Amino acid sequence: MNYIHEGDPLNAQAAYDFKFPCGENGEPPDWGRYPKGHPLAKHTQKSAYERYIAPLVARIIPWIGVLE
Questions:
Q1: pLDDT for res 22
Q2: How far apart are CA 51 and CA 39, in angstroms?
Q3: What is the pLDDT of residues 17-62, one digit of tens each?
Q4: Which string of DSSP letters, residue by residue, matches 13-67?
Q5: How are beta strands 65-67 and 56-61 bridged, if at all?
Q6: Distance (Å) of CA 5 to CA 24, 38, 54, 56, 67
Q7: Distance from CA of residue 42 to its chain's centroid?
Q8: Cα separations (Å) of 12 from 4, 34, 61?
Q9: 7: left (phi over 0), alpha (psi -120 to 50) or beta
Q10: Rounded to two decimals, what is the model's pTM?
Q11: Nearest by Cα to 32 from 49, 55, 14
Q12: Distance of CA 49 to CAs 12, 17, 27, 31, 43, Å?
């Protein structure tokens, strides 16, 4: 079982991002990119979360479930 943290919330082990539909095609929303000029512009949301928050990062899509 993957825990978000083991007692210390400042030492995250996992991060989950709830993604909701934003298009008409029914495809699962992908990881967004930060806009040009943003300090994290070279990252996707997933790579930024992995680098700065937790090693395990997953999308939660309500009609599908958890996707890594």
A1: 63
A2: 14
A3: 988 776 567 677 888 899 999 999 999 999 999 999 999 999 988 8
A4: SEEEEE----SSS-PPP---BPPTTSTTTTSBHHHHHHHHT-SEEEEEETTTEEE
A5: antiparallel
A6: 36, 28, 9, 11, 19
A7: 16
A8: 6, 22, 21
A9: left
A10: 0.75
A11: 49
A12: 10, 10, 22, 11, 9
Q: Is the dihedral of CA 28, 63, 19, 13 positive or negative?
A: negative
pLDDT of residue 34: 92
What is the per-residue burial (b if ≥16 Cβ within 10 Å, else e) of 7-30? eeeeebeebeeebeeeeeeeeeee
Amino acid at 2: N
CA 43/CA 34 separation, integer angstroms: 7
Say which residue the tokens 């070279």 belong to: 42
The label of the residue with tokens 């937790």 reads 54
